[in-house]
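agent> Task received from the user: take the single chain below, predict its 3D structure, and emit C-alpha cells. No templates, no multimer pairing.
agent> Plan: (1) validate residues, (2) run structure prediction, (3) serialize to C-alpha cells, (4) report one or two observations.
agent> Step 1 OK, no nonstandard residues flagged.
tool_call: predict_structure(input=
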Amino acid sequence: MTATVAPLLEVQNVSKYFGSVIALKDISMHVNAGEVMCLLGDNGAGKSTLIKIFAGVHQASEGRFLVEGREVRFASPRDALGAGIATVYQDLAMIPLLSVSRNFFLGAEPTTGRGPWRRFDVGRADRITRDELAKMGIHIRDTAQPVGTLSGGERQSVAIARAVYFGAKVLILDEPTAALGVKEAGIVLRYIAQARARGLGVIFITHNVHHAYPIGDRFTLLNRGRSYGTFAKGDVSREEIVAMMAGGEELEELGHELEEFARGDSVAAARLAETARELEAEARAVSGGDTTPVPAGSHSTVGRQGAAAGSDTIGTTTSPD
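)
tool_result: status=success, residues=321
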C-alpha cells in the first residue's frame, strides 16, 4: 500500500478578522509538489490577505495551517522562508540601480576575504546568477547590468530564479502578470511551468482568468473573503470561472441594468429626434421672413424696409417724447 504524500502547504477553515471586519472566512485549500494552484478572485476578494498568512506577515484568527503535514504558526516572514515558502510580490523587492547579481543575492551576499577585507564576491555571484537563470531557460545579457534596465518579464524571472535557488519548496506569485504586456506575460507563464517541472508547488495569484487557465492545474476561487471551492481544470471551463469570479447574481443584475439603459436610451433618442424636427421647422419659418409689425414704442429695431431694399444699415426709431 502506497503512503499518501502530504501537501506541501495546506490551510483548513482559515479565517482572518481585523476588528469587526471579516477579511477571510473558512478558507480551505492546498498545493502539492509539481502543481500550479491558481488563487483567483476580483479586487477585494481576500487574495492578498491569504498569501500574507502563507508568508508569515499575518497570523490566521481561526483554522489550521500545515506545511508538509505539520501544523505551523509563523511569527514572521523569516519563519516562512525557513520552511521553504517564498513569496514574490508585485514590487519584486528589487533595487533598480543595483546589478542583476546584487539583486539576486540581496540580503544573502556571498563574500570573500576576512575581517576588514571581507567584501562581496562579485565573480562568484555573477557565475551563480547566470547558471541559475540558465537552468530556467533565462539568458541575461550581462549580470552586471542594473536590474532596472530589464523588462518586466525578465525581472519576474530573476525573482523566481532567486526564490528557487534559496530552497523554496512553495513559490507564491502575487499578480506576476498584472503590469505586463501580452508577450511578457507569456514569458512569465513559461517560467512558472518550468518551476512546476522542477517539482515546486506554485501558488499563482491573479484576477486574470486568461493567464491562469492555460497554466493552472487547480483553481481556488475567492469572492469577498469566502471560497467558492477548489476545482480541477478538467471539471470547470474558463467561462464558468469568469462567471463565479464576477458572481452569477451580480452578472444577472448587470444584464437587467443594461437592458433598462438600452430602453431608456431609445426613449431619449426619440425625444431628441422630435426636438430636432421642431427646431428645423422653426428655422425654416425664420428663414422664410417675418412680417410681424414693429410694436410702437420700441427704442431700437432693425430697419426692415432697408433690409428689404438690400441695405445693410441699421435703422433706428426714437420713441416720441
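agent> Step 4: summary for the user.
Residues 248-287 form the longest helix (40 residues).
agent> Done.
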